Amino acid sequence: MNDLATEQVGGSTFHTFNNVPDVIGKYDIEKAVGKGSMGTVYSAYDSFSNRTVAIKVAHPQFIDQTEDGSRFRKLFFNEAHATAVLDHPSILSLFDAGVDGELCYLVMEYVEGAATLQPFSKADGLLPIREVVGVIYKCAKALDYAHRQGIIHRDIKPSNILFTKDRDIRVSDFSIARINRADETSTQFDGFLGSPLYMSPEQINEWPIESNTDIFSLGSVLYEMLTGAHPFKADSLAKISNNITNEKPKPLSEFRSDLSEGLDYVLSRMLKKKNSKRYSMGLDLAADLALIYDDLEKIETEDSLREKFDTLNRLGFFKGFNDAEIWGLVRASNWQNYTPGESIIKEGEIDNSFYIILSGVVNIEKDGQHVDTLQQGCCFGEMGFIANTERTASVLAKTDVSLIKVNASTLDRADESTQLRFLKVFVETVTERLKQTTSILTQLRQI
Predict the structure, then answer these.
(1) Which of 156, 227, 370, 374 makes an SS bond possible with 378, Cβ 3.0 to 4.6 Å?
(2) Contacts by residues 302-307 (CB-CB < 8 Å, ≥ 24 positions apart)
(3) In CATH, what class is 4-109?
C-alpha cells in the first residue's frame, strides 16, 4: 500500500498517494500527470491494446466518507456514463472504468503534451484572434454533437478544455454532465453544480437547463481568451451570481481595438441572460464563427503582434514594464502610421491623447515656425493628456512615422496593474520634462 499525503483542494481535505501505485486494474502506472478536485490523473500503459492511456483515480478520502462517499462515487462514475456514448474527435475519449480494491478509476485517451486553455485565458498568454475563433468553433461543434446525444456538459471552462501540441482541442471532464437519454437509468445530479464563474444564469438560479447552458459557459471562455479578463469576476459568490444573472460584461472594445463587429455580436448572443435569446444549437454558433473565421485575414497575425511587443519592449519609456503589462498595451493602444508632411496634432485643437514615437521623426511647429524635432522613443502631448486642453503647437511627420496614441479610454482597456505602471512612468516623464524646461528658463534668465 502506498503512503498517503494530506492535501487541501477547494477548501476540502483529502488524501493522495505519496507514491505512484505500480498497477491499477490491468494498467501499468507510469507517472502522475495531473490533479483535480475529484481525482489524480496518471499516465499508464495498456499492454492489451499496446497504448498509453490516462487514468483518473478518485481521491480515496472522498470515496471513504460515510455521508457523502456514495454520492461522490456516483458523481465520479457519472463521467463514464456520459462519455461512453460520445465518439467525437474533439471530445476526450473514455475507454474503461472500474474499481480496484478501494480505488475507483476511469481510463481515458492520453494526449501527450496537452495543456488546458487556462494559460491562454490570461493577458500575457492570449492566442491570435484567428486561433481563438478556431478553438471556440471546434468546441461548439463538439458540444453540438454531445447535445444531440443527450449530454449536457454543465462545466465548460478553460481547465476542462485541452489544447494539444498540434493546436487541436479536446473537451474533457463530463463528471457533472446532465444525461437526457432514454437508455439512461442512473440517478441524475441536479442543483448548484459546476464552477460558479462559468455557470449560466439558469444554473445559478437552479432553474431547468437546456443544452445552450453550455453555450453561455463557452461564451465566458471566449471572452476570457480574447481579453484576459473574466466577464463576471467578483470578490464573492453573491456578486458573481448577480453579475451572471443581471449585469452585462464590459464591451470588448474596452480591452482592445482589433476585434471585428461580427465577433462582438457572436459573443453578446452567447452571453444572453435568457436562454431563448442565445444560440439554441452549437451548429448555429459554429456557422457564425466560420463566417468570422473567413474574415480574419484582415486582423493582425501573431507575428505582427509579437513585432509590436518587441518594439515596445525596446523603448526606454517601457523599461520596468513586465511582459503582461506590455502585452496589455499592445492590445489596448491605438497604433497609427503617418507619411511625411502629414499632421499628427494641429495647433489650437482639443486633444486628450499622449503619443510615443515608435519609429521615424516628427517636427514641432508653433505659429508656422520650427520649434523642435523628436524621434524614436520620444513622447509628446503630455499636457493634453492631463488637462484635455487646446494644443499650443502642431506636430507633423517629417519622415514615415509609427506611434502609439494613449488616452483615458485606451488605459481603461488595460488591466489595473498596467494602468498603474503606465501612469507612474508618465509622471516620471512629465517631471523630467519640467526639470529640463526649468533648466532652460534659468539659463535664459542668466543671459
Answers:
(1) 374
(2) 302/127, 302/128, 302/131, 305/128, 305/330, 305/331
(3) alpha beta
CATH of 115-298, picked from 1.10.3720.10, 3.40.50.880, 1.10.510.10, 3.30.110.70, is 1.10.510.10
Tens of pLDDT, residue by residue over 321-337, are: 888 888 878 877 788 89
Q: Work out the pLDDT band at 107, boundaries 50, 70, 90.
A: very high
- 179-220 pLDDT per residue, tens: 886 555 454 555 556 689 999 999 999 999 999 999 999 999
Q: Which has the minimum average pLDDT: 62-76, 158-172, 273-287, 406-420? A: 62-76
Residue 300 has pLDDT above 70, yes or no: no
* Dihedral sign of CA atoms 54, 58, 60, 61 in order: positive
Does 310 participate in catalysis according to the annotation? no
**Active-site hit among 144, 155, 214, 288:** 155
Q: Return the closest-CA partner of residue 345 out of 385, 292, 294.
A: 385
Within 8 A by CB and 6+ apart from 397, the residues are 338, 339, 340, 341, 342, 344, 360, 361, 362, 363
Residue 323: other Cβ atoms inside 10 A: 12
pLDDT band at residue 138 using 50, 70 and 90 as cut-offs: very high
Domain boundaries, the chain: 4-109, 115-298, 302-446
For the entire predicted model, the pTM comes to 0.65
Residue 74 scores a pLDDT above 60: yes
In angstroms, the first-to-last Cα distance of the chain is 91
Q: Which long-range contacts (CB under 8 A, 24 or more apart) does 380-384 make?
A: 380/345, 380/354, 380/355, 381/345, 381/351, 381/353, 381/354, 381/355, 382/354, 382/426, 382/429, 382/430, 382/433, 384/345, 384/350, 384/351, 384/352, 384/353, 384/354
Please name which of 122, 195, 180 lies closest in space to residue 149, comparing C-alpha atoms. Answer: 180
d(C-alpha 25, C-alpha 3), whole Å: 19
